[in-house]
Structure formats: structure tokens, C-alpha cells
Amino acid sequence: MPSTWLDFWQQENEFDNSMSANYAYFLDRVEQYAPLNKTLRVLDIGSGPANLEDAWHDRVGELHGLDISQRYNEIARAKHASHPNVFFHDIPADDYLNFDVVAGKQFDLIIVMSVVQYYRNAGEVEKLLANIKSLAAPGAKALVCDLIVEEGVLGDVLSILGRSLRQGKLLSMLNLLFRLRFSAYYKIRQDNGFLIVPKSEWLAMCKRLNLNARFVDEPITMQQERQNLLIQF
Fold first, then answer.
1. What's the whole-model pTM score?
2. Which of 69, 84, 118, 219 is the most buried (most CB within 10 A)?
3. In this protein, which residues make up the domain named Methyltransferase (predicted)?
């Protein structure tokens, strides 16, 4: 049984077929902050089973996904084998802030979706922001999404249930939450928790790195209690 978040994402898990609802909600809202066009070069940090690439492969110029899970990358590569503008890169599970595989490239849009809560500390978050800065093209935008900025597991659950109800997907979400409660995910969450970084600390890190950043006003993921950071270069 996996004992850490790194172990969890390397194995088949309950999220393999259940990320689409949150992604659909995000995709309906993200373009008001990051309009797409056919020349856009996009970096997807924590690309998982390629939900973003599934939606955008024919709407942007180039897509690069980074993930620690070779299993997810194999799934993603198989799905997008016929799309020459889509690339998936393995990053080391024990060195997941090492983005050398895309060193020297510049991106117009960088997406980090529901990844940061699995980091170990705020120092790693600041390293992520520095990496984003080094990979951003002039005029680029980055969205770091689904951020936990305060304690509140109950609020997280109630928020996603409410939005699932409005989307007509309440039963499937209840089924997922039930399976998670009796899975390795629940034990790992108890043992390792989620990383919580307050909004003030996010903004302080951005200031130290000279980043033009703000939190967007409306929720753009199903977890209404979570926050989303927009960085403009």
C-alpha cells in the first residue's frame, strides 16, 4: 500500500476516471483569464491523464505536460499519439521540481491544476514559482489553481458536493467520496495531510520573486473554498 502522495500517484487510483468533472468546471471558466489561440505554447504542470490536453490539443499551437507518474504519461501519450503538437515529459518523483526536460523553452500559458497541496513545504512552492518565471515567455500568463489557503476539509467537501449537484453529477461525486474514504487515499491524507499556504504567504513569495500576481475573484474549480492565483508576465 502506498505511504506517501508520491507513491499514491504512481499507482492506479480512484482519480483515474473521476477528474473530468472538476476539469469541465475549470475549462468553462479559464478562458476569461487566459484566452486561447492557435499559436499559444502551453505548459501543463501535473498533467495526469491529460484532461487539459484532451480539451485543448486542437485549439493551441503546442502543449507540453509534465508529470511524475510514468503510468499517467503512458496513458496520455497513447491518447495523443496522433497529435504532433502534444508532448508528455517524465519528471523525477524524488525531484519533482526539476523541470530540466523543458529547459530552454518558453511558454505563453502555464497551468498548475490541483498539484500544490501535495508538496511538502512552502519552500517547494517558492521554487515552483521561480521555475514558472524562468519558463514564461514575455507577456505570458500562469494560473496556479485549486490552492488550499486555510484549514477546512468540511468546507472543501460541501463545496464540491454543492457544485456537483448543480452540474447533475451528485451521485457520481458521492460515489467517489465513498470510495476515497475506504481507500489508500484516506490513510495517506491522514498521515501526510495537505499543504496549506495562506494567501498572504503566496503574495509575499510572489513579491520576493518580482511576480505580478493576484488571486482571481470567482471560483474557477469546483472547490469553492480553494483559491486560484493568476500571474502575468
1. 0.82
2. 69
3. 42-139
Residue 230: closest CA among 197, 194, 210, 206: 206
Name the residue with cell 491523464: 49
Question: Do 190 and 163 form a contact (C-beta atoms < 8 A)?
Answer: no
97: CB partners within 8 A, 6+ apart: 124, 127, 128, 131
63 forms bridges with which residues in the sheet? 42, 86
Q: Are 139 and 109 in contact (CB under 8 A)?
A: no
Nearest to 64 by CA among 97, 103, 116, 36: 103
Cell numbers at residue 163, please?
457544485
Q: What percent of the chain has pLDDT over 90?
A: 61
Q: What is residue 89's three-state secondary structure? A: strand
Q: Which one is the CATH code of 5-232: 2.40.50.140, 3.40.50.2300, 3.40.50.150, 3.40.190.80?
A: 3.40.50.150
Residues with Cβ within 8 Å of residue 184, at least 6 apart in sequence: 1, 2, 8, 11, 13
100: confidence class by pLDDT, cuts 50, 70, 90: very high
Give every CB contact of residue 214 below 8 A, 6+ residues apart in sequence: 229, 230
**pLDDT(158) > 50:** no
Residue 48 corresponds to which cell in the numbers above? Answer: 495526469
Q: Where are the domains of the chain?
A: 5-232
- Residue 77's SS3 state is helix
Please identify which residue in the block is written with the cell numbers 518565471: 133
d(CA 121, CA 98): 16
Both ends of the chain: CA-CA distance in Å?
42
